[in-house]
Write a structure and sequence with these properties.
The complex is a heterodimer. The radius of gyration of chain A is 18 Å and the shape is elongated. Chain A is built from 2 helices and 6 strands; from the N terminus they run αβαβββββ. In chain A, strands 2-1-6 form a 3-stranded mixed sheet, covered by helices on one side. In chain A, strand 3 and strand 4 form a beta hairpin. By secondary structure, chain A is α+β, with helices and mostly antiparallel strands. Helices cover about 35% and strands about 20% of the residues of chain B. Chain B is built from 8 helices and 8 strands. Chain B has a 7-stranded parallel sheet with strand order 4-3-5-2-6-7-8, with helices on both faces. The longest helix of chain B has 16 residues. The radius of gyration of chain B is 17 Å and the shape is globular. Classes of the chains: A alpha+beta, B alpha/beta. At the A-B interface, helix 1, strand 5 and strand 6 of A face strand 1, helix 1, helix 6 and helix 7 of B. Strand 6 of chain A pairs antiparallel with strand 1 of chain B, so a sheet runs across the interface.
């Protein structure tokens, strides 16, 4: 639902980094987004196409690397991918779990000319 | 040519949030970002908190809503400073909106700032505002499975308030299962069971808040 704000930030960062690299065009942006971050790929691309008009990033392709959710049991240290809730540790059946991965939301790199 | 970036998409917002917090710290204001689904009882909790603390704590409120001033009007009756943010359709409050709100408050005359976020369990979790503590409410009719559906929200909050406890006999809400899910994900979170309607449990929430205010 907040893809518009997220996309504006993506565009701002990409344009700033492209300027630093003295690029004339941004052709691609590689994003890393955790499965648990509530960001919808198609929606970001849709907003991006709109927001990037008249910029050097117009027409750039966004690619999304999705990081699966990963939890770790604080009791026995076992790491696992959560399935259906409730999220207890499949090894020791404790409920004490921390989220290791799946909440990422960053730009890995941009493709420029 | 590939240019490595490795930058958090929320950086710009986070920087403003950090500045907001510095401004609040300078004025010794404790700020809470209060989040929940629509209708869970954020405004009711804020009203109850203002009333219980009114003799000892100078409270102000920032009201975030997509549209309308209904909530701000309710708060206004308590005669505390209130700033309305209309997000114009945006599903969350961001740090810049809070920054604008802070500019219209006399921070030196405030001890406690309650920021009521837009009713939503998804987006507000992603945007820092600069508040010191994140507080969320979940009301009993929403169900005890919400920590699994909105893990980010439940992981980030320092205080989680289960509101509408008076409705427990009417709902299939397993409070033990809920506490187990929350504590599993976020062992440090304080869980309060309250009813803003009957006043049940509010004293525990207010005591926690008073202790946080003392630490400032």
């Amino acid at each position: 639902m907040h893809e518009l704000a997220v996309t504006q930030s993506v565009l701002d960062i990409a344009l700033e980094k492209a300027k630093e690299a003295h690029a004339t065009r941004v052709t691609g942006i590689n994003l890393v987004i955790g499965e648990m971050s509530s960001v919808v790929d198609d929606c970001v691309q849709f907003y991006f196409d709109f927001l990037s008009q008249d910029s050097i990033a117009s027409g750039a392709t966004l690619s999304f690397e999705r990081i699966p959710a990963k939890l770790r049991c604080r009791q026995c240290g076992h790491s696992f991918t959560p399935d259906e809730p409730p999220w207890s540790c499949p090894t020791c059946h404790q409920w004490d779990v921390e989220i290791l991965a799946g909440q990422e939301l960053y730009i890995d790199s941009i493709e420029v000319e | 040519m590939k240019v490595k970036v490795l930058q958090n998409i929320m950086d710009a917002n986070d920087q403003i949030a950090t500045r907001n917090q510095q401004l609040l710290d300078k004025n010794k204001v404790l700020a809470l970002n209060i989040m929940s689904s629509p209708g869970a009882g954020k405004t009711s909790l804020i009203l109850e908190t203002i009333r219980r603390l009114k003799d000892t704590v100078r409270t102000a409120v920032v009201e975030g809503d997509i549209a309308s001033t209904i909530d701000a009007d309710r708060i206004n009756k308590e005669e505390v400073p209130v700033v309305q943010i209309n997000t114009g359709g945006q599903c969350h409050i961001d740090a810049n909106m809070v920054n604008n709100a802070l500019e219209s408050l006399s921070l030196e005359d405030i001890d406690l700032l309650l920021i009521e976020n837009v009713g939503n369990l998804v987006c507000p979790a992603e945007f820092r505002t600069g508040a010191h503590k994140r507080v969320m409410l979940l009301s009993v009719p929403e169900g005890d499975d919400k920590p699994y559906k909105y893990p980010l929200m439940f992981t980030l909050c320092q205080a989680i308030i289960v509101n509408k406890m008076d409705m427990l006999p009417l709902a299939d809400f397993d409070i033990t299962a809920f506490q187990r899910a929350v504590t599993g994900l976020n062992p440090k979170a304080r869980i309060f069971q309250v009813s803003c309607k009957t006043g049940e449990g509010i004293e525990n929430w207010v005591s926690w808040l008073e202790a946080e205010l003392k630490d400032r």
